[in-house]
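Q: Hi! First time doing this. I have a protein sequence and I read that you can turn it into a structure. Is that right? Here it is:
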Amino acid sequence: MPRDIVYRADLDGLRGLSVLAVLLYHLGVDGFGGGYIGVDVFFVISGFLITQLICARVDKGDFSFVDFYIRRLRRLFPALFTVLLASFTAALVLLSPQHLQRLGQSHIWALLAGSNIFFWNESGYFDAEAHLKPLLHTWSLSVEWQFYLVWPPLLVGLLRWSRHARHRWLHEARLLPALLLTIFVAGLLLTEMCLPSDPEAAFYLAPFRCQEFALGALMVWFARRRPRHDFLQEIAVFVGLGAILYPAMIYSRETAFPGVAAVLPCLGACAVVYGGTARHAGRLLNNRLCVSLGLISYSLYLIHWPILVFGRYWLLREFETTEKIAAVVLSLVLAVAVYSWIEKPFRRRSERSWRPGAFALCCALLSGIQVGICLITIHYGGFPERLEDGAATATANVAGKKKQTIRYALSNRRFPASDTRNVLVVGDSHARDLFNALHLAGRAGRDPDLRVAWVAFDDPCISILRNWAPTGGRWARKPRRVEYCRGQYTDLVEHLSEQEIQQVFVSASWTTNTVPKIGDLVGLIREHSDAQVFLANRRIRFRHQLPDLYARFQQPDGFPQYVTGYLVVEEQMNAQIDAITRDMGVGLIDVAALVLNEEGLPETFAADGSLLYFDGHHWTLAGAELFG
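A: Yes, that's right. Below is the predicted 3D structure, encoded as structure tokens:
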């Protein structure tokens, strides 16, 4: 192994291109639907450089774990701490209480190098959309830190052991490449096995990214074998850049990723690592522009996403072209500032200042202070006192109200057989809201003979009803979810067959994929029951979460008029549903009209001043009671 590590400008250039791909993807620029592969290229580079550094230090006999981890802290912590602090400060001003509370949670996990685990646990149907998570991008930093905790001790132990091994095949030149190749194959197989059943785990968790670091580490040994002909290096650069650029432009959100799809950009990064020092093709990477972008790539990656999140949150819409350009310019300016005034001073400090123990203690103390502030923020519900009294009350404990509606439906979803009026509600979370409304109406004595139950049949399951083979879209990524839908189908058939049901109400968040399947669903119900069928049309929804809109407006007077500007009414789809109900002799429940008052404005408040929605289209229990 080389005793000294030579700086390679081409790797900084590759970093620059990778962060640019990520930035363009996050901006929604056409032609970069797969720009997220830039993160995977970062992992390959990290695996290569960290392994190269450790091997060089072990060769010289001066490797120190304390020195290694302090260097990592100096490299990563100051900029991260600065961006986290700035993000929290901006959130105090901009975010509603519920989102400030959630940011406090993700802030803690980012400091503890576990934000990838946090966002994995948080992922799901009712998870906040990505544009409401200012620290979502820190998941990749957590994956990298977890790599640092596992790989260096393992690598150092194997290096020291292999050099004293009696058998030649146990020498590091054979043992470590074989081990890394095994990790790559095993990691890839594990990811492919996990993708169908839990794609969120495959995306966020470190074990499903280990093959990418392993590929980079493997290049430490491959890079030693230079080709006999220089033109092979030139070709390697062009092929590698093409293998990175192609998926960045062709992949999309629907691509099953990582897994096999991640192999192409990772191999492309390996090819660039191998041939990046090429005399001519290397200029594509080691030019001043790419290298400069690479030098600020870490700060740029940290800074750009919070700027996009806070900007969209403030505007309550997507960026226009000029605003995208302004966001890029602001991100670059701030990245240069953080790199120049924070990153470089800590990385190039003199040995007399910031001794390792003092620096580690300072990082721990600063992290402890931030964790304490975040815990207080979480405990006090995101400080609703920041808002005016009415808005503070209306937007308080939104997460608790959401859990309350789900818990209420799950605990009351079954009815015993009886001679009273039995109504079965079928559908997804919108059907759950309808169930809550009917159940509360029965309990309130408005219809004392009413007995109501809810059977879950999710919107995506409706879209593949009677055709259980996944053909594309989200089901191409999650084919095992088909079994989940089969379970819902069986549950529905059992209820229809075994219970005395007078009426069936069907409700869902109808889409262009599910509306054509309404006939199949109604036919299924009629096959197993003589009950009268009613169909709820598509509910109106708000483009943004209602608590967020009220936190911005803060006045009850005029709020219905204000949110009307953010109202989405699917008139064309509801006309389709209306025609289907007439053709099939099915009753229509006009939920779209139900939630409007006599003036045609959306109902937003209950009698006690609380909001009727906990997001943009799901009812709180107060909303269900009113609409029931």
